[in-house]
Amino acid sequence: MKTLRTASVALAALAAAGLAWAALVPPQVDSRDELFEIPKGTYARRMAGDKVEILPNRIDLTLGLNDHLLLRNLDDVPQQFGPVLVMPGQSFRLPFEVASTYGFDCTAHASGQMTIVVAEAPATPWDRLRWRWNRMRTKIRA
Amino acid sequence: MRTARFLAAAALACACGLAGAGEPTPIGLKAGAFDPPQAAAEFPDGVRGPDGAPLKLARYRGKVVLLVFGFTHCPAVCPTTLATLAEARKLLGADAASLQVVYMTVDPERDDAAHVRTYLAGFDPTFVGGTGAPQALEQVRRRYGVTAQKLPAAGGGADYAMSHSTSIYLIDRDGRLRALMPFGHSAADFAHDVRQLLALK
Predict the structure, then answer these.
(1) pLDDT digits (tens, 9 = 90+) for A8-18
(2) Contact A57, A111 (CB under 8 A)
(3) Residue B149 needs a FRET pair 20 to 30 A away by CA distance; which of A15, A32, A56, B19 works?
(4) Which among B32, B36, B165 has the least Cβ separation from residue A94?
């Protein structure tokens, strides 16, 4: 019984420490690139009737953390990535410096629009928690 | 053993950090940069310049070219872009002589060479306009990934608007398509990027 209580306390302390770290330590990233790749064979899959979606309708970026949209075409034919025509083997890196909502025409989406939401870097503990939580969810979904 | 494991982990972390390091665009542009840059698509023969002669990008080799797509009846986006580019030329001072703005219409039905020339002169007399056969202009748009669509007037009259891509293409002195600047950037951003491209060897 005592062991269980000690383990619970230790677990709670660990969780609290983790939360404190997530709230207080400013996030750091290895790369500011938010990468979207068109894999080889995408054109062939589309021609075969496969509905291939590379870019989501909405992309969320954060200044200073992941504020470079990086599009890479690994296919054998030119690909339209939102507003950009990227040649085979070519990349396109678009940096963002201002927090705002950007709308781009995109024929690949049913709405004809792609939205990029660029947020300020998380400055408060609550913002950092929320950023880390959203980041984790995105990674898990991917 | 422990030391070796630590060194291996440190080396791996270092390598990952370097591989993923978020470099700015290769030449530090405000615009989105293509890597590697490729030759900008030349205009087909059906595209005509302000003098009625074929308009060719090659004519501006040695200058940085800002290629804009629009139409003279555009109520907001095109005038804003052209005014911004005119302002950028002023910011460039002497370097402006090494910049050429080329405005390609997406509305050849209404934009003949004379009309485009008069329209552009209102922003900057050095701006050059391109118009011509609809098929030729459509070919240019396809090569640059530009979309344009006719939108009928709300009241059903003869008038119409055009929905079109609003980004500006940056072509270096050697005729390579280097970058694409989305609509909304300031004149200072354009001046910055033009200077960066002019500084390229």
Answers:
(1) 999 999 999 99
(2) yes
(3) A56
(4) B32
CA distances from B47 to B50, B95, B123, B140 (A): 10, 28, 22, 9
pLDDT in tens, B25-37: 557 899 999 999 9
In 3D space, the residue among A100, A129, A96 whose CA is nearest the CA of residue A117 turns out to be A100
Average pLDDT over residues A9-36: 89
If 0-12 CB within 10 Å is exposed, 13-18 middle and 19+ buried, where does residue A17 land?
exposed
pLDDT at A51: 79
- What is the signed CA dihedral for B49, B51, B53, B56, rounded to 10 degrees? -30
Cut 0.90: pTM above it: no
Contact: A83, B165; criterion CB under 8 Å: yes
Residue closest to B119 by CA, chosen among B108, B103, B141, B133 = B103
Phi-psi bin for B31: left (phi > 0), alpha (psi -120 to 50), beta?
beta
Distance (Å, rounded) from C-alpha A68 to C-alpha B24? Answer: 8
Q: Are strands B168-171 and B64-70 parallel, antiparallel or unpaired?
A: antiparallel
Identity of residue B7: L
Is residue A122 reached through a cis peptide bond, with omega within 30 degrees of 0 on the bond before it?
no
Structure tokens at A96: 């963002």
Structure tokens at B116: 């485009």
Three-class secondary structure of residue A131 per DSSP: helix
How far is residue A116's CA from residue B34's CA, in Å, rounded to a whole number? 19
Cβ separation of B182 and A92 shorter than 8 Å? Answer: no
Coil/strand/helix, residue B178: strand
In the structure, what pLDDT confidence band is assigned to residue A21 with cuts at 50, 70 and 90?
A: confident
Give the minimum alpha-carbon distance from A106 to chain B in angstroms, rounded to a whole number: 9
ipTM: 0.80
